[in-house]
Structures are given as structure tokens and as C-alpha cells.
Amino acid sequence: MDIIHRIKYSMMGNIAHLLKHCYWICCCILLLGVQGLANYLGGEFKPREDWDWADILGEGLAQILVFSWFLLILSIRSAGRVTNLFALGLIGIMISTQQDLLDEFIELPDGVLWDSWLESFPVGLMIFTAAVYFWREEQSQINRFMAKRELAFRSDKRSRSALGLSDYSGFYDQLSSYMKRYPEQWQQSSIAFIQVDPFSNIVREYSPGMVDHLLSSVSELLLLGIRKQDLACHYQDGCFAIFLEGLQGEQAKHRVEKLSHAISAFPVDLGGSDRIEGTLGGRTIAFSCSDISGFDLDALLQEARKALVVQSLEVPQFGSENASS
């Protein structure tokens, strides 16, 4: 029953998305219908013995597949130039393949030329090629944005968190693998931690949904601030861990402090009817991987957590301005 419900909701979601492109679907059905009507009114049906069933099967299957592409692309894309080009190009291809199919059943007079134009001139393919070109540009921009998430999602089934970051288990496994595969680079790198403060107050005062929204916002800031080769994870509660490849000492400390300052400068809006806003602080600490005795990753993570707990740092009280008002 669970599988049936999943299929049902998946189909409902796809149908709801297709309805947003109903004008393209209506346009497709209308043009194909007009084409079929023009062939019916302008020609004569061939005798059954003249039908080539191999051509009918192949051309009919091609038409079904192109129409499936049409529906699949519309079901996963938002409205825009690239989507419009894909839809228009596929409609053009369907018109060509349908004319090939109709020619197997209907014979038009010798003086009619438009059927040959519909079959032979690749307007649909030209438009579809333009769509692929602009989709490539669109995808390259998305890839540049998503590049920093690549490590968080590469070969790790446990990193599909709502925050867009690897969880602790995935982070640990990836660091362990990196440490074994690239021991020299590991020795030249650092692991840093940022603790969002005062996180305990936020958890007490606001709903889980608001807290998740806060963590998601901080995650986005970290992804924007780290380099492509770095790796960030949601370590636990309000703590985030960052692997800084090729950075040690003051360089690593400077990098993580810049990230902490970015979080502190970020105006937090947790939503709700009161539109509560506050200011975040952060405690930071960075460890050089070369300081880990015997590549003991567990010891480093435990030491970092203790250091964050005992580190004293004044942070602004979240929501204090609202309390006083």
C-alpha cells in the first residue's frame, strides 16, 4: 500500500506540474489535430494491402517516444525561454514524425507539396538544438553554483539532509577516506568548527521549523563562503564543521573567522507573525590535521567539541531587542 500511495502522489505531483504548461500541451494537440484533419480532407486512404506494417510500427513508436519526451521535459521544468524552445522543437519533431506516419495510411494528390516540407525540413530539430545549447549554458551556471556541494553529496547516501550539507557520519567517512588516499595533502590541511550562538536560547524560544530555517540559512552562507575544494557539514545542533584543504595555521584561522563574521553580519529573520529578528554570534576553533597524532580523527573531533564548550566568548542575546520592546 505504501508503494501505491507513493506512486499516486508522484503522479499527482507530475500532473500538477504539467498543468502549469497546459498551453503547450493544448498547442501540441491542436497542431497535430489540424495536421491530421488536413491529411484526411486533402487525401484518400490507401488500400489495406498497401500498408507497410514495419514502417507503421517504427514511425508510430517514434511518435510515442517523442511525445513522452515532451511530457517529461514539461513535468520537470519551470516556464522560461529554454522550456519554450524545448516544447516548440519537440512539437516540430512530432509534426514531422506524424506526417511520416499519416503517409502510410493516406495518399495526397501529386500537386500537394506541404506534406514533403513537413517531413523533410528539420525545423523542429533546429529549434530543439537551440534549446539544448541554451540548456547547456543554463546547466553550466547551475554547476558552478553546485560545485561547492559536490563533496557533500558525492558517494554518500547519508548526506541528503534538508540543510544541503553532509551530516556528521558522511563528513567523518569522507575525511577518513581522504586521509588514507591523500596523506600528504591531509597533513597540510585543517579542520575548523563554528558554533552558532546562542543556539540553546533559539531552540527554547522558537519552533523546530524556525530553527531549521535558521540552520538552513547558515548552511547557505557557509556554502557561499567556502572554496570549491573545501567540505562543510552540519556537525551537531548549532555546530558546523569545515575541512579546509591546503590551509594551516593563521591562514585557516583567518578563513574560519571570515566565515564566522559573515554569519554574525547576517540579519536573521525567523518569520512568524512577529517577524522576529536578531543577531547571531559564533565561536570558532581550527585544528591543523598535522597535529593529529597517528591520524586519529576521533580524537580531533572530541578535542574540538571540548574546546568549543570551554571557550568563553561574549555573544549578543538573541531576541533581546524584541524583549525590551
Automatic annotation (TrEMBL):
The lineage of its organism: Bacteria, Pseudomonadati, Pseudomonadota, Gammaproteobacteria, Oceanospirillales. The keyword Membrane applies. Pfam families: GGDEF. The chain crosses the membrane at residues 21-41, 53-72, 79-97, 117-135. InterPro entries: GGDEF_dom, Nucleotide_cyclase, Rev_trsase/Diguanyl_cyclase. Keywords: Membrane, Transmembrane, Transmembrane helix. This is Signal transduction diguanylate cyclase. Residues 187-325 form the GGDEF domain. The keyword DNA-binding does not apply.
